[in-house]
Every structure is written in structure tokens, then in C-alpha cells.
Amino acid sequence: MSEDGKPDSDEVRSEFTPPTGVPVPPAPEPPGSGFAPPTQPIPQAQPNPQQFPSPGPTAVTPSFGPFTPPEGIPVVVLPPHDARWQDRMRAMVRIPVTERPEPVPPADRQESAQFVPVPRILDLTLRIGELLLAGGEGAEDVEAAMLGVSYAYGLARVEPNVTFTLLGISFQPSLTDPPLTMSRTVRRRGTDYTRLAAVFQLVEEITAHEATLEEAYRRLADIRRNRHPYGTWVLTGAAGLLAGAASVLVGGGPVIFAAAALAAMLGDRLAWLLAGRGLPEFYQFAAAAMPAAAMGVVIARYAHWIPGAHGVQASAVITGGLFALLPGRALVAAVQDGLTGFYITASARLLEVMYLVVGLVIGVTVVLYAGFTALGADLDPDQALRAYDRPWVQLPAAMVLTLAFAVLLQVERGVLPLVTLNGGIAWTVYGVLHQQAGGNQVAATAVAAGLVGLFGQLMARYRYVSVLPYVTAAIGPLLPGSATYFGLLALTHKHSDQAFTQLTRAAALALAIAVGVNLGGELARLVLKTPGPSAPRGAAKRTRGF
Question: How far apart are CA 513 and CA 518, in angstroms?
Fold first, then answer.
């Protein structure tokens, strides 16, 4: 009992009284601070010459507990300073912000390094990222470019964030300072690979410390003001040439070439008209697909008036029109974002592809139903079982298709021969594996797309530009236009099993193209010798099975 008559609390005595003859354990130490220094010395990690220099006062050096073994601390190897900015920044994106080295300004800017206009640097970074994302660049490359620009102007603790239509960037000077966050929304997206190449050149000069902040602003304004290299009517003619070449690729003749080209040009002008009226892309694609389908129905109905225009060539008209409208660029970008860990952006791109394809399906299906009921056109879905093997005609058609596709993508004139050659190589490999050797069509498509990605990555790395101009147009001859059309045709004939088979094959071919292009690019980074020292890029690590 205590002095005030209250029983002793259970907290001041132990319920486990030691038996007689057992020594009493020593009394516990009085409670103190939970942050008292340890009695044993903490082992210090030995410096590694391969690690990057210690960060400056605004960065935080990661500390490891006394029980962390030295071999358990990962060693971060940064790319050399003379490597390509894409390699250096891809490696930096994978490093936590607290472990990145402090940027070293050039000698002529070290005196003014403490006066850094942070808001203007972040604004310039967002504007450059906006142009890249609007041009179809992958999310990882956009983040790498944004990090490279901010890092070149002296901002180390920067976190860029890219989604399908929103770009954000956050800068925190130190752990005790509030972060500065800015964002920018991509309102309009258009394909202009000439502008994309100019932006890549600007980022190259910024990361090489060859452009000041004001010069970069002026260059960016010039890039935004520059007109497209090809006019509207040139693009319309390229769309017709693409559709005509695609019709020859699947068995059409000269008359069918002209009909497919005329239908594609009519569809292109109709899409331009709807775009000027503010209609969404869904309706533009549905309207653009209707002239080609209508032309195919008319040729099938009045084939006896056209010399040599039998049913197979009527189907070739519609197939050529679909080649000019299939969203291969968005599909490749979606799969690339998904494989590099940007799942939100990949999901949004795939949803865009799905909407555009549904628009094509609606446009073609409506015209086919109208043709069957009003004109009695005879288009046989069993024609899909026939093979067309004319390599000396198909190879030039594939190269012309690639050239027209590159013009539609606004590729630089000096790049057009390389892109055309890459498309010809892709079709040659596909023809040898599938048509001559009798291999599986999906596997042959994947191998051909892999070579497109490999050669495209090699040419892009030697020219220090984006890989998109070299691969997007080159996959044009491999797009599943024929499988898509015959699937829709079987659907209109109520042959559900055959329609499912054809549409599934079209989806498998599209996925094989996208994965093959991405895999070829990754193999180029791993194997091929490129100018300048190579640098490892840490993958987006995931736990296995958890």
C-alpha cells in the first residue's frame, strides 16, 4: 500500500517474481529520448569511385541504418556527361529525386548560378513537353526531355509528370522549402514530325548548354510559328496515293488504284470539312471511311462495266481506304507507354484507338448495309481466304505506301528516302516469311515490325532525333487493313464466326506490330554500337507475384 492508502499500480511491479535462488535482473534504465545516440559506432559506407559526386546543400544524401549491410546498398551509376541526353535523362528519370546529383553549370554561368529564374525555367520545360506530347511522343521520352531541360538550367530537385493530356512539374529547393508546382494541358494534338524534330534539336542544344533561357524561348516561338512543310492539298494527294498503293498491295489493278485514290481523297476532304465545323474525330473518321466503302460497293455492283474489275478488286478499294485511316501511330505509342510503365497514358491512348476504330466500323458498315439493300452489291467475305503473291508489284506498292504515309505525318524531306527504304525492308521480310516460307502471319508481322523498330532506332540515334519519323510510316504496309475489312464484311453478312476470326486476327496483327516496334527499339539500345558512350537505363521494377 502507498502512503495515501491506494494500492500499488501494476505498472510499478512485475507479475513474474523470480524464484528463490535466482539472481534478480538489473533494474531497467530510466526512460529517455527515443533519439539517443547508439552506444556502438555506426559503420560508414565506403566511397565508391563509380558513384556520382555528393550532392550540394539542396539535396539530401540517403542514410542507411546500422544494420544495413554494405553489399545491400545499391550503387547508382550515372551516364557520362558526353552521352546522348536521351540516355542520360532516361537513367535520371528512374532515380529518386533525393539521389540525383547536383547539376554543374558551365564555366560562363557559374557566377550567376545563384540567380535562377525558376518559374521561367519550369514554364519553358512545360511548353517543350507540350509540343512533344502533342506530336505523339511517348510519355517516357517526354519526361526525359522535361528533366533534361530543367536539369540543364540548374534545377535538380524536379519531378516531371506526364499523362495523356496533362503535364505537371514540381520543383522543391530543399526539404524545408515549399514546392513550386506548375501544370499545362494539351488542348490540341496534331502530327507534324518536322516540328517534332525541331523540338528535339532544341532540347539537344539546351542540354549541351549551347542555348540560354532567352534564346530557347525565341527558338521555341519560332518552332510554334513555323508552317507545316506540306500544304493541305499535298496531304490530300498523299492520302489518295496511300490508298491506291494499298489497293495494289492486296490485289488491285490500275483501275482500282485510281478508284481507291479518288475515294480516299474525297474522304480526306470530307474529314477536313467536318473538322472545320468543330466535329470530334470520331465523326470525322466515320465520314472519311464512307467514300471508300461506297466506291467499293459501286464497283462490285457494276463490275461488268469495268474491264477486269471482279469482286476481289472491289474489296481492294475498301481495304485501301482503311489503310489510310487505321490509327497505327496511336497504337504504337499506346503499347510503348504500357511497356515502359506509364499505364494511365497507355490506357488513354488505347481508348483513343478504340474510339477511332469504332468510327471506321460504323462508317464502313453503314455503307455496306446500304449497298446490299439498295443496289444488291455482291461482296463475298470468303475472298479473304485467297492469297495474293506478286512480289515485284507489291514491293514497289509498299514503298509508295510508306512514302505517302510519311508525307501525311509531315516528315522532313531529307528523311523521306530513309523512311521509304525502311518500309520496303519491312515488307520484304514479311513477304519472305509469310508468303514465300508459309510462316504464321502474326509472327511474320512481329519480326518485320521488330526490324522496323531496330533500324529506326539506329537511324534516330545516329542523327540524335526522335525515332517516330523513322518507324511510324514504315509500319504502314503491315497494318491489318485487309483483315479489318473482311471482318466487317462478314459481320454485315451475319457470319459471326468468320467475323470474329477476322477481327481477332486484325487485333493480333496490330498488337504484333506495336510490340515488335518497341522490342526492336529496345534491342537497338542494348546491342547496337551507337555514337558516344552508352549508359544503362534502369527498368521500371515491379515485385513478382505480389
Answer: 9
